């Protein structure tokens, strides 16, 4: 029996099942939020673009041998004396192979017709999110494998150490005399939080300018003339100093794409999403990994 004097009971859920009293108005449905489709792949953000049709990439890693003789040097030559001989050979080329990463899922026609959201659009976003995570992991692993590393002077949770490490890191990269100018640093969200909590940071910047002081504007943008890239997949214990669009190449064979294959005999669609490519670091001297920043 329906009671008219009192409202119908609240709905209940169990897993994906929603139970609603028939006398209750339709409940509002809020879809789960997932990463937006314009979120950039880390390799696209950091590296210059490149393509391959064969899946193979031949490249050489930049080094000091590219601009100076690898052995010997110019000398003063007395009249009639022999010229000093130098070695101008370069290191051999390397090869990287593009790989395909992706996943597939099924969508039944009943789900497309009856569900309160677009199952294909939501499924595509989930696969793209997984590819974002995988791309970041490959990119960060490439830094660990190719780029010089140094130990932090001390934990960045204490004053001055973060400034010392980054300023010395910039000087070390520029000291190679290869024309590099590091402009960005990659840190994790936890590292960003610890830096923003430093009283030193707030006291160094003018409080009368709310746009520059982290007490009013919680951002590290512009500190030490660097672009601070906060990536959720970065290690809490590492900071990566680099020159964007110089350190590496984002080789793309096929960008993120989705194929939908109908299976009419089973009343469903097979959705296949993938991305083909490989991040290549060809100028490792333009970057530096600072280890142990959290102590």
How would you describe the overall organization of this protein?
The chain has 295 residues and is an alpha/beta fold. It has a single domain, classed as phage-related protein like domain (phage-related protein like fold, Alpha-Beta Complex). It has six helices and 13 strands. It has helices at residues 42-46, 109-114, 119-146, 161-174, 189-196, 199-204, and strands at residues 12-14, 17-19, 48-51, 56-59, 94-97, 99-108, 149-151, 184-187, 227-230, 238-242, 248-263, 268-281, 287-291. Strands 7-13-10-8-9 form a five-stranded mixed β-sheet. A four-stranded mixed β-sheet has the order 3-11-12-6. Mean pLDDT is 86; it is low at 29-35.
Briefly, what is this?
The protein is of the alpha/beta class and 295 residues long. The protein has helices at 42-46, 109-114, 119-146, 161-174, 189-196, 199-204, and strands spanning 12-14, 17-19, 48-51, 56-59, 94-97, 99-108, 149-151, 184-187, 227-230, 238-242, 248-263, 268-281, 287-291.
């Amino acid at each position: 029996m329906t009671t008219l004097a009192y409202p119908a009971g609240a709905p209940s859920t169990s897993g994906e099942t929603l139970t609603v009293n028939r006398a209750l108005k339709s409940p509002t449905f809020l879809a789960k939020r997932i990463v937006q489709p314009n979120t950039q792949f880390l390799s696209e953000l950091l590296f210059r673009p490149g393509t391959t049709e064969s899946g193979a990439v031949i490249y050489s890693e930049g080094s000091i041998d590219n601009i100076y003789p690898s052995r010997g040097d110019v000398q003063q030559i007395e009249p009639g004396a022999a010229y000093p001989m130098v070695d101008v050979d370069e290191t051999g080329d390397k090869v990287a192979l593009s790989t395909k990463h992706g996943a597939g899922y099924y969508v039944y026609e009943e789900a497309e017709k009856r569900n309160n959201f677009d199952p294909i659009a939501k499924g595509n976003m989930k696969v793209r999110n997984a590819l974002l995570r995988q791309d970041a992991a490959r990119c960060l692993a490439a830094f660990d494998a190719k780029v010089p590393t140094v130990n932090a002077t001390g934990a960045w949770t204490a004053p001055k150490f973060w400034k010392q490490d980054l300023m010395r890191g910039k000087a070390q990269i520029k000291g190679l005399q290869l024309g590099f100018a590091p402009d960005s640093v990659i840190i994790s969200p936890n590292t960003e939080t610890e830096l923003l909590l430093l009283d030193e940071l707030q006291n160094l910047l003018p409080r009368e300018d709310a746009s520059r002081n982290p007490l009013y504007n919680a951002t590290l943008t512009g500190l030490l003339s660097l672009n601070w890239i906060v990536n959720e997949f970065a290690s809490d214990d590492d900071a990566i100093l680099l020159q964007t669009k110089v350190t590496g190449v984002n080789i793309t064979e096929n960008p993120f794409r989705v194929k939908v294959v109908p299976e009419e005999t089973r009343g469903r669609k097979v959705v296949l999403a993938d991305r083909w490519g490989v991040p290549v670091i060809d100028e490792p001297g333009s970057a530096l990994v600072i280890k142990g920043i959290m102590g």
